[in-house]
């Protein structure tokens, strides 16, 4: 295949000024006055070197943020946890802070990645995040911590049977060259016992509007950390693309030094198409972790033994029960990001045996039982930028008490849709 098979029709992708898409809704946060002293003694839960979560004795324990660092949590509210529990909780936190709807809020907030030295840290992990490119086709976007949006490098090829091949290269020259180098290096590996050279993630998840658009061409994308992604409409289209791109990689094709068009720009406010795939229970488990953890730290209390064990098992993802201790408010289809703090309300006036956890305005109710009822409500506010936690002042308390009283919580995942009688097999 000649090196000119993919013309270098590119386009400089500048910083998108605002958010990748426009989300609008009203958000409310709950808080209540703190009338008891805060004893932030997470070490108290680690007596005799017991893991706070699994209650097993360990020789090595590390600090676990009650409110995850990636959501703005700070070190003054931590407990001691063992490595297995840390790993379980980290997986749930990753779902929430990098894959869920809350991840968009988290990445817009100015919280630095926890591992800035890792190329894969601090980025949204959507199923797809596409934008209509001014120069044709669809760009592959990347949302990173601090509300930074950039274009990932990729090669796309039109491989419609019976039609001439066409191609486009997007991203920076350096990025496109890196993608080609990573793929070529993989081709030179020695096949393993299963006779495979390497593995690449293939994604066939596309919005109908994109899949039906002839301007979308199958592509190979370079993700952070030199990971490769294939995207196409169908397995058949994917195979045709791979055959052509492999021939290209085996040729002497090189990405020219200067090939982009500086005048091409994706302006701020341009609509982006995004799909998020995540475990919704992870959000509820993290809400339970925050509510239960702060309850234990602030009050020094424990729940009834069986309820306490079930709560910790649920938070760790070990409880195999449909009776979750968490319910949620209806999730708005549209929303807007905000700099308002997270809020945790212990024993709110209208619901004394529960805790209300508000994360970026999304509210969760965590049931604690009789032991969760306090003499007075307790409220904590956590700044989403990681600058600290504080007690709500009287004005905030009054407003949020009123807002929280109007909340309606349910467990929609337990509702089974009715099957029309005509569709029931006899």
* Percentage of residues in strands: 15-25%
The order of strands across the largest sheet is: 12-15-14-13-16-17
Outline the biggest β-sheet. 6 strands, antiparallel
Instruction: Briefly note the structural class of the backbone.
Output: alpha+beta
The radius of gyration is 25 Å
* SSE order, one letter for each helix or strand: EEHHEEEEEHEHEEHEHHEEEEEEH
Instruction: Indicate how many domains the architecture comprises.
Output: 2
Look at the structure and give the mean pLDDT.
82
Quick synopsis:
It is built from eight helices and 17 strands.
SSE diagram, text form:
Layout: E1 62-65, E2 78-81, H1 83-99, H2 101-108, E3 128-132, E4 138-144, E5 148-151, E6 154-158, E7 166-170, H3 173-187, E8 201-203, H4 208-211, E9 219-223, E10 227-231, H5 235-249, E11 272-275, H6 280-299, H7 305-315, E12 326-328, E13 342-346, E14 354-359, E15 362-367, E16 378-382, E17 389-391, H8 394-405
Parallel strand pairs: 8-10
Antiparallel strand pairs: 1-2, 3-4, 3-11, 4-5, 6-7, 6-9, 9-10, 12-15, 13-14, 13-16, 14-15, 16-17
Helix pairs in contact: 1-2, 1-6, 6-7
């Amino acid at each position: 295949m000649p090196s000119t098979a993919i013309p270098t029709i590119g386009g400089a992708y500048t910083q998108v000024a605002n958010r990748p898409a426009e989300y609008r809704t009203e958000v409310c946060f709950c808080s209540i006055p703190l009338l008891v002293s805060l004893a932030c003694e997470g070490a108290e839960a680690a007596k005799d070197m017991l893991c706070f979560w699994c209650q097993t004795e360990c020789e090595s324990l590390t600090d676990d943020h009650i409110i995850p660092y990636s959501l703005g949590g700070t070190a003054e509210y931590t407990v001691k946890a063992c490595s297995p529990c840390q790993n379980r909780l980290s997986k749930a936190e990753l779902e929430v802070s990098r894959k869920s709807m809350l991840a968009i809020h988290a990445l817009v907030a100015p919280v630095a990645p926890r591992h800035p030295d890792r190329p894969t840290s601090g980025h949204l992990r959507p199923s797809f995040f596409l934008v209509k490119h001014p120069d044709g086709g669809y760009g592959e976007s990347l949302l990173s911590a601090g509300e930074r949006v950039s274009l990932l490098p990729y090669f796309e090829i039109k491989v419609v049977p019976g039609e001439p091949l066409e191609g486009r290269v997007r991203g920076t020259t350096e990025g496109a060259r890196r993608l080609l180098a990573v793929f070529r290096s993989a081709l030179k590996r020695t096949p393993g016992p299963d006779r495979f050279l390497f593995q690449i993630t293939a994604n066939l998840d596309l919005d109908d509007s994109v899949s039906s658009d002839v301007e979308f061409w199958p592509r190979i994308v370079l993700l952070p950390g030199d990971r490769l992604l294939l995207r196409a409409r169908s397995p058949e289209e994917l195979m045709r693309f791979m055959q052509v791109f492999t021939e290209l990689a085996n040729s002497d094709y090189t990405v020219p030094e200067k090939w982009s068009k500086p005048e091409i720009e994706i302006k701020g406010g341009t609509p982006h198409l995004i799909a998020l795939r995540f475990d919704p229970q992870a959000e509820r488990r993290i809400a339970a972790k925050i509510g239960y953890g702060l309850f234990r730290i602030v009050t020094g209390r424990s729940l009834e033994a069986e309820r306490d064990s079930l709560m910790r098992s649920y938070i760790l993802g070990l409880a195999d029960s449909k009776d979750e201790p968490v319910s949620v408010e209806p999730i708005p289809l549209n929303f807007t990001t905000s700099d308002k703090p997270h809020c945790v309300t212990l024993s709110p006036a209208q619901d004394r045996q529960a805790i209300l956890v508000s994360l970026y305005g999304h509210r969760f109710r965590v049931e604690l039982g009789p032991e969760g009822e306090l003499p007075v409500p307790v409220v904590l506010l956590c700044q989403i930028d990681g600058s600290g936690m504080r007690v709500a002042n009287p004005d905030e308390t009054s407003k949020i008490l009123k807002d929280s009283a109007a909340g309606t919580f349910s467990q929609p995942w337990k509702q089974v849709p009715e099957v029309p009688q005509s569709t029931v097999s006899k």
